[in-house]
Design brief:
665 residues, mainly beta, Beta-galactosidase, Chain A, domain 5, Immunoglobulin-like
Length: 665
């Protein structure tokens, strides 16, 4: 399949009609100057984009501490951050309005149009990150999807960043991660810029990738309209009240025109559909009128049944779409219907753990590295069905009793992360696909472990994996260096789901922090979402095409119900923190949200949900997870009840003891 990555910079007013072609002139230093009626740009002899000026403003920062305006940049974070930029070997002009930059395993093609620059990327080297470095003089910034203002020196924000100068010239960057380059540095000067990070995987053969940056020298009505959603609570999670499962949800819109000479006279329409079934639950339209430099506020009130919804608010003037806001809503969170749970679910897993107890662990430890504060070992042990598992194990050199930290992996067959290591923690990091911790010569052998043995619950490989994760906890708890009352498990994506399940299967887990967790709502994924969502458990034919036969889907659902993380919720006795981006299009949050009401026996349960977060998780999630770990490491788990806010978002926190409960909305 051909993949495309074209970086399109549209510059000027609406349309290209009547504009003269770009002029491309080679300069004495081997670089090229590009001039059109709407913008000027410069590509250096190194093949990188060094300047982009529109509306009299330079939008890129170039030459600062190793950064370039636009290019493949490697940024090393820390107390003193540094940047290294990839340089192409040759830049040639094969046609009047195009340039081609080449290097081993990399090719970049610029095409200069009257009001656009198209850039095609092709690279057969390792996954690469393309950065755009924003001029720190640009301080008027919005997140395009939400309309929310982005402050300078923002630590982390995902989405499409919209940049403005004082007169309205504006740049909309492609979707990616926008962050302050010195966010982890010791000093944070205003001269250090924000960057937009656009990650691109490896391409193959003639494949390229596609992205778009839109730039207008003069603002259109769409550019000038700042339409900001106003939803309370800020996490878009509406719980039920004590009387009705249909507590009203209110969606507000604050709209204003930022620049003179432009007005808006149209309509605002809100359409809400069930995320899984796509059935429409609400539709309403209201007039939208804004004078030049004016503002208005609209409110929509809806009371749909408890469910996870996708909402779209469209602002139109005639046939012109001025703005679209797509966002999630969760109504009746504590009364949502959970996934179907087999009646023999608990017996199935109790029997599985008993079966594993009869299998000798056959643990082997091999010293790999010795540091002054800890020793790092390679660990191997046996699991069910003759499977072997490998892990890293870090043990402090000083005798004592320490908390234990287990890291579980994301999807794929790759080396496990190095474990949490130091003088005061026993750390383990587990590989779950049978691979050793270090890849053999020639790399790991790929196999479809997600569907391995999926014909029956008893033979499905994930049953073996879940049991092995529980055995890893037993191995930690048995170590003389471990305080068995302070065992922590964490992971992201697949690892987030595994952490949740491990906490359910093994009561020795005192705390689990689950980031963007997968493995929730597996039946819903099969019936409603399909192969576009993880995990890859859909029935496939011999040509690797999805099988849509209802009987095949029914049979697969009957199996995966036993591995659905949601169905493990009633078994959790310890503390659990769920970190979720509600716009996660890799692991759907629907199943996780349906699980919240089933965490009836957890000592503490907490949920941080970001309505604008994707698979990288919610704003503030990493810091909150670290706070939870430190509370457990210090032996003060109850402290997490105080953590009711992360970044700009509320945290829902509830204690299993009603007299201690804290709920933050």
């Amino acid at each position: 399949m051909v993949q495309r990555f074209a970086l399109l910079l549209c510059i000027g007013t609406i349309g290209c009609g009547g504009l003269r072609a770009a002029t491309v002139v080679k300069e004495a230093d081997g670089g090229y100057r590009i001039v059109t009626e709407n913008y000027s740009a410069r590509v250096g002899a190194d093949g990188n984009l060094h300047s982009l000026v529109s509306g009299g403003t330079e939008f890129l920062l170039d030459g600062y501490r190793g950064l370039v305006g636009g290019g493949y940049i490697s940024i090393t974070e820390g107390a003193e951050w540094k940047a290294d930029c990839f340089k192409f070997v040759e830049v040639a002009q094969p046609a009047e309005n195009s340039l081609v930059a080449t290097a081993p395993n990399h090719k970049l093609t610029y095409r200069f149009l009257p009001d656009a620059i198209e850039i095609d990327f092709s690279h057969t080297a390792d996954p690469t990150i393309w950065y755009l470095t924003v001029n720190p003089a640009i301080t008027d910034m919005l997140e395009h999807a939400s309309g929310e203002t982005i402050a300078p020196r923002t630590v982390w924000r995902e989405g499409e960043t919209h940049l403005f100068n004082a007169s309205g010239a504006n740049v909309k960057l492609p979707a990616g991660a926008f962050y302050y380059v010195a966010k982890n540095a010791r000093e944070k000067p205003v001269t250090d810029p924000n960057v937009q990070q656009v990650w691109m995987p490896r391409t193959w053969a003639e494949g390229v990738f596609t992205k778009r940056i839109v730039i207008h020298a003069k603002p259109t009505a769409s550019d000038a309209l700042q339409a900001t959603l106003s939803v309370s609570p800020g996490n878009h999670l509406f719980a039920s009240d004590s009387v009705s499962p249909r507590q009203p949800a209110r969606v507000g819109l604050n709209a204003r025109l930022l620049f003179p000479g432009l007005t808006a006279d149209g309509r605002a329409e809100l359409v809400v559909t069930d995320f899984l079934t796509q059935k429409e639950a609400f539709r309403q339209s209201q007039p939208l009128r804004i004078d030049a430099m004016g503002e208005t506020k609209l409110t929509f009130t809806l009371t749909p049944p408890p469910a996870f919804y996708a909402a779209n608010l469209t602002l139109k003037q005639g046939e012109e779409v001025l703005a679209t806001r797509s966002f999630p809503l969760t109504c009746g969170l504590d009364r949502m219907t959970p996934p179907e749970r087999p009646v023999d679910f608990d017996k199935f897993w109790d029997d599985t753990l008993v079966e594993q107890e009869k299998v000798p662990t056959n643990m082997q430890l091999t010293l790999f590295e010795e540091k002054p504060e800890y020793r790092l070992y390679k660990l191997r042990f046996d699991g069910l069905l003759g499977r072997q598992f490998h892990a890293w194990l870090s043990i402090p050199t000083k005798e004592g009793k320490y908390p234990a930290h287990l890291t579980l992996p994301p999807s794929g067959i790759h080396p496990p992360y190095r474990p949490y290591s130091g003088p005061n923690v026993v750390g383990m990091s587990l590989a779950i696909a049978g691979q050793e911790v270090l890849p053999p010569e020639g790399g790991y052998k790929y196999w479809d472990y997600w569907r391995g043995g999926i014909e029956k619950p008893e033979t499905w490989y994930y049953r073996v994996v879940f049991a092995a994760c529980s055995r890893a906890i037993d191995i930690l708890a048995a170590r003389p260096e471990v305080d068995a009352s302070r065992i922590f498990v964490t992971g992201g994506s697949q690892g987030g789901g595994l952490s949740f399940i491990t906490a359910a299967l093994n009561p020795k887990v005192a705390m689990a922090v689950c980031g963007s967790p997968g493995l929730f709502g597996l039946e819903w994924k099969l019936r409603h979402l399909g192969p576009a969502y993880w995990p890859p458990i859909d029935p496939m034919d011999e040509k690797n095409q999805p099988i849509t036969d209802p009987k095949a889907i029914d049979n697969r659902c009957a199996v995966v119900r036993y591995g659905d993380a949601a169905n493990f919720a009633p078994r959790i006795k310890g503390a659990v923190l769920l970190l979720v981006g509600l716009q996660d299009h890799v692991t759907s949050p629907a199943g996780l949200l349906g699980t919240w009401s089933q965490l009836k026996n957890a000592k503490i349960k907490a949920l941080l949900a970001d309505p604008w977060g994707g698979h990288n998780g919610p704003r503030g999630g990493q810091a909150l997870g670290s706070q939870w770990w430190m509370a457990l490491a210090e032996g003060r788990t109850e402290r997490v009840l105080e953590y009711t806010k992360a970044a700009e978002l509320p945290v829902m926190v509830e204690s299993g003891n009603p007299t201690e409960g804290v709920t933050a909305m």
